[in-house]
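Bit of a strange request maybe. I'm writing a small parser for structure token strings and I need a real example to test against, not something I typed by hand. Could someone generate the tokens for this chain?
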Amino acid sequence: MTDEAIPGDVSPAPAPAPAPATAAAPAGPVGLAAVPGVARLAASAWWHTTDWTLRTSVRAGRRLAEVAVRPETAVDLAQEVREAAGGYIRDLLETTTSTNGGRTRELSPEDHAALRAQGAELLHKSRDVHYEEDGHPAYERILSELAPDEARILRLLLLSGPQPAIDVRTGGPLGLLRSRLIAPGLSMIGARAGLRYVERVPAYLNNLYRLGMIWFSRETQRDPLRYQVLEAQPEVIDAIHSVRQAKVVRRSVHLTPFGEGFCRVCFALDPEVAENLPEHASPEKARKPQPPTVA
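Reply from user aminoacidic:
Good idea to test on real output. This should exercise your parser:
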């Protein structure tokens, strides 16, 4: 027999099946508060950036339309953009600070006491005539931040002295007014040091400069033959031929006094070699120490 409805039947309809119970929400913080630590900061920054972008896009669209009708208001628009960007940055900093507990970590009295104790210990050692220190305390940390190829670069500079480097720039009459940099920091350091990854020389030199091991001088080396050999290299010739008129600016790469001391302590040297190492110029004696210009 089927379950078809009978005319005139007024029996109550069956109760609907109960909806499946949903899992109870876990007790505790929700939203941004449930995201721990750094992830919470990132989520907050993303949310505020998105909100600011949407609000600014709508407002900027209206202002641009107004500028199209009234060009004299362009200066006011530029000022508004600067003020809006500054306000956004301030709001973002305040938000990330409040998300991180409302304040930055402050040193406790115990932290202050520990730092003062370390400072007092250093001063005590400086007065102790019997205390000897073979190398700077930072040497151990620096060794952990060097690539093997970078150690070979330092050894090359220590044993062979400052290395020539050149910049290729646009020349000619226009170059006298405004010279454009074509190829910066070209050298033969990678080949002469026997590096495994020669293409990483620019990154290696940047890291060594960051660690205070080397510096870049505008002074040239005394032997012009070293520059002539460098300027005959294929990459230099390609850079020179890439423009109609080019000029070569000669420079040099040196060890800093700190870097030279590091190499003397951390690299094994024969006593005779250690007594006759090439001399490096000090940044203080140069006309103007230069930051790295390597690509």
